[in-house]
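WARN  no MSA supplied for this record, continuing single-sequence
INFO  ligand: acetoacetyl-coenzyme A
INFO  echoing inputs
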Amino acid sequence: MDFNLSEEHLAVRDAARYFAQNELLPEVIERDNAQKFDPVLLKKMGELGFLGMMVSPEYNGSGMDTLSYVLAMEEISKIDASAGVIMSVNNSLVCWGIEKYGSQELKQKYLTKLATGEMIGAFCLSEPEAGSDATSQHTTAVDRGGYYLLNGTKNWITNGNTSNVCVVIAQTDPEKRHKGINAFLVEKGVEGFEVGKKEDKMGIRASDTHTLMFSDVKVPKENRIGDDGFGFKFAMNVLNGGRIGIAAQALGIAAGAFELSLKYSKERKTFGKPISDHQAIQFKLSEMATKIEAARLLVYKSARMKDEGKDYVQAAAMAKLFASDVAMWVTTEAVQVHGGYGYVKEYHVERHMRDAKITQIYEGTSEIQKLVIARELLK
Ligand code: CAA
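INFO  complex generated
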């Protein structure tokens, strides 16, 4: 597999790096404290094409490949993992799914705006009693002829308040179990759609995560994505690609913490010399760099496989499983390298450590990734 980056790939990576360093870095700590993402920055991300990276230009997207997307995700998440998840959900879970499986009308009406950031999307699968056990949907979408009547509650929804349109997964025919599940596009502001509690999170605090409630919401029939009963398969297919995005986010968090640690180790002196001269620190840096490189190869591999039209289910799960563990380990070590300074916000690495944890949980926990990998190995 060819991991050489083309001129275009390098240009995307540099543009994302420039944006992250110059626009995201200055107030990243303030946004984390305030638990609020800056709408001006979100608008810029849209203008720069980061919100619809893989969407074809026909629908106002950047028309790039998955490898470009992960390169940008890595650079942005190195600085601000909250920006990373906002971007990842919009790109992988919303735009990609609509372009791949949505009708021409849905693409014209929603994708053209989601790709530019004029609209922001959310993906609503999880429920109070359906996290890992995603087939166990309690939200119902009853077929009433011209529309579906939607009732239920969705939990831990990234972009819950920021979004204008949500992909909602719901049960239409319980007897058919997961084959009776549908996916819909539901607009904010429609009657019966309420944004509930905002979660006070450990990490990725600048991204907003909410409970969403649906009470007798009428969803037009044309807002269903794909054929009747395709909703669960849709969610799984979309999440396979989403996991590549989250793996890239985890990689970025780890790489960001490592870069800070490398720099700090040359500046900080103990026992009369920079701590980078101590073997204890050198061993940490070596191990961090090696694990990050291994994670990067898995992430690039899964992106390349997706771009080449190969089956990437296992590769995506492996990339997310490994990169998220690397992110947790590297960020913990980064705090250790920084010592007492690492434990305070000013030095950034404590935020990276808090941000890393969620990558082992959302878009399928590490345990679910192991299950997916095992099923692929054994089938
Ligand atoms: N890709 C494609 N199809 C898949 C799939 C995959 N990775 N995994 C399962 N499926 C299909 C199966 O083939 C099956 O379809 P058929 O009946 O047509 O063969 C169907 O889905 C049901 O699968 P199972 O019978 O294996 O169902 P299960 O209940 O035993 O397991 C599961 C399903 C894999 C555990 C699934 O529930 C799962 O992935 N859970 C994790 C959910 C998740 O990732 N949630 C993330 C929430 S979104 C989020 O986090 C966004 C955010 O905030 C950033």
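The radius of gyration is 21 Å.
INFO  checksum written, moving to next record
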